[in-house]
Amino acid sequence: MGESSHVLTPSFNRSVQVEGRDERLGTAGGAVLLREIMQLSGLRRFLANRLQDPRRQAAIWYPIEELVCAYLLLIAQGWRHGQDADRLRHAPALCISATQTRGPTAVDQPLPSQPTLSRTLDILARGDNRVILAEALAALAGTGLRARRGGHRKRAITVDIDGLAFPVKGHQPGSAWNGHHGCRCYDPLIASSAELGDMLGAVLRSGNAGSAAGAKPFILDVVERAERHLCQVALIRLDAGFPSEELLAALEANGTPYIARLKANPALDRRSAPYRKRPRGRPSHEPRLWCVDLSYQAGPWSTPRRVVLVLKERAEDRELDRFYLVTSIAPERMTAEEILARYRQRGTAESYMGELKEVCHPALSATDRPKTRYADRPVVSAGQLPSQAFARNEALLLLNQLAYQVLHIARRALETARGEGVSLHWLRRALLVIGTRVVTGSRQLKIIIENRFADLWVAVIERLYRWRWPPP
């Protein structure tokens, strides 16, 4: 049984004794399930074949894909690499899931240490590797989609682009005070799909960046990846801060349809004034809503565009409430009411982005604080440049999106099996962070979980094995 140490005899019940033992116990049994998803989807192979590793390969202990796998498992389970990696180095389920070692000896392969994971982030922060992480995210989403659909992509999907504030403590490079959010933060652009629940990309921005700062190249890259991995046509949905002549013209030249909210302005209000009247007759008991198609050309625009005027009646107001949507979709393809219905699905995308922030909880905290000593010798000049720390945070954000995507594939399998929606919070409690015991044999490792959770595991695994997994 191994040595034991007495920890506690609680005063409320003296018959209870808490001991610490050297047994293979843990609470990260779900790591095995997450690793199986990475294996089925080909994510590890994708990363191994593409990530650039500048280390001398003959001297390394952990391959780059194994380091990334350890990162994703820690994030998905709710741990922090900077705070918990060393304490969890010998957690049996994590060790088995992170290593590429086969056989019973896998349980004896410790996780990478915290300093090793920190140096890994420096490697992933390289410009070419950040591109690979973004590509891996789209490939993973596409692989999961095609597996569920018998190997086929969708005809079209809607991609939502929005900012998502991540508060920081201290003065991390690139962070800034944001008056709207009332905190010092980063304000990255996040790409996601409301109808699929997938994360499709991210680019880190300063906390005081404008809504549309850096949006054009990011959106075009996301569209290109989405149409390569998930669909034939990607429709872009945007909030009011994004529409500009440069972005809208680029989307039109690319053949990418879009729906975006427009900020009201006096010229647009004058153009819509004849239509902002209540219908004749007695008002109904319930507030009414209707849409009007307009053609409008703003001052900076190079051409007139289709604008949908949305009018809302409120019983307590004499004036009609209104807002505007601009779109490149012709009326014969989608009516004004259908344009409004499609735009209103943005709320679903925002809920998925909220899960990314609350469940994965990206800790964007790399700093440029320099070292003062190294190997017991004073360092004259050291430390990261601000641009390097910023790149580390962007790589960390992409890793969190990848971890979210692995969790989301598990969620889709469980939802399909059970026929009901599941939150990532519930998924983690019921499927991942569960009591685990590892029994080592001569040729076999047996992972024992509580029987009351086994039916959920069976439901997920059976569904995953029914899907048709293509190479990413």
From TrEMBL:
Q: What is this protein called?
A: Transposase DDE domain-containing protein
Which SUPFAM superfamilies does this entry report, sorted A to Z? Answer: Ribonuclease H-like
In terms of domain of life, where is this protein from?
A: Bacteria
Residue ranges of domain Transposase DDE in the record: 10-357
What InterPro entries does its record include? RNaseH-like_sf, Tnp_DDE_dom, Transpos_IS1380
